[in-house]
Specification:
225 residues, mainly alpha, Tetracycline Repressor, domain 2, 10 helices, 70% helix, 2% strand, elongated, TetR/AcrR family transcriptional regulator, Tet_transcr_reg_TetR-rel_C_sf, HTH_TetR, HTH-type_TetR-like_transc_reg, DNA-binding
Length: 225
């Protein structure tokens, strides 16, 4: 079994063996995600992952050590790469002439990421396995914390400029996310086949932003300014 380091959340950091093929490693990762999503941690086997990846079982062990480390590495890594692209949108909130439109754009992008079928499936998987693997819950919390921090920074800047009046940005961020991202995510978490009607998702986000701004807009500021 290869020696591995753990990151601050206990997720294995596994170096690619010098003699291994990057193509084989990628095949193992993709096969593992597919098997874990379909069968859960307990139901998925290293044999089935190796078969799907078209590699030998020893090759899987060579790259990842054991089933537990494979699960943590591929699921944790997949979650961390699933939310790329949000930071630039968060930065635009303070630069845009219309903060409302920028907030709607940012939260709409966030909602569409969390509603992706792969992300929703992994969310359900993590919920089911979080007691066995609390590290994955910590990864999810870390992702949310980074996204929250970007939005907190934006709201703080807008407050300093007199556009908003948000005395305590951190709980305000949670309120805004709950009315937009969280509301949509909750629906799809427990109703996987639910299809949002035309305009329903956009209205959920925009109305949540409007409720938020109606409470936190600085005195004397017109809507959207």
């Amino acid at each position: 079994m290869p020696e591995t380091d753990l990151d601050e959340l206990g997720i294995p950091i596994i170096a690619v063996p010098v003699s291994s093929s990057e193509r084989k490693r990628r095949a193992i990762e993709e096969a593992a995600v597919a098997e874990f999503v379909r069968e859960g941690y307990a139901g998925a086997s290293v044999d089935s992952i190796a078969t799907r990846a078209k590699v030998s079982k020893p090759t899987v062990y060579k790259h990842f050590g054991n089933k537990e480390r494979l699960f943590l590495a591929v699921i944790g890594g997949y979650l961390r790469t699933g939310y790329t692209g949000l930071a630039p949108l968060a930065a635009r909130i303070t630069e845009a002439p219309d903060p409302r439109a920028a907030l709607v754009e940012y939260l709409d992008a966030w909602v569409r990421i969390v509603l992706r079928e792969d992300i929703m499936t992994l969310r359900r998987l993590v919920i089911g396995e979080v007691e066995r693997f609390p590290q994955l819950g910590a990864v999810w919390a870390e992702i949310n914390s980074h996204n929250d921090a970007d939005l907190t920074t934006a709201l703080t800047t807008l407050t300093e400029r007199g556009v908003l009046d948000v005395p305590d940005p951190r709980p305000a961020v949670r309120q805004l996310i709950a009315m937009t991202v969280g509301a949509a995510q909750l629906i799809r978490t427990f109703r996987p086949s639910y299809e949002f009607a035309d305009g329903e998702l956009e209205n959920l986000v925009s109305s949540g932003v409007d409720v938020f701004l109606s409470h936190y807009r600085a005195a004397g500021r017109p809507p959207g300014r």
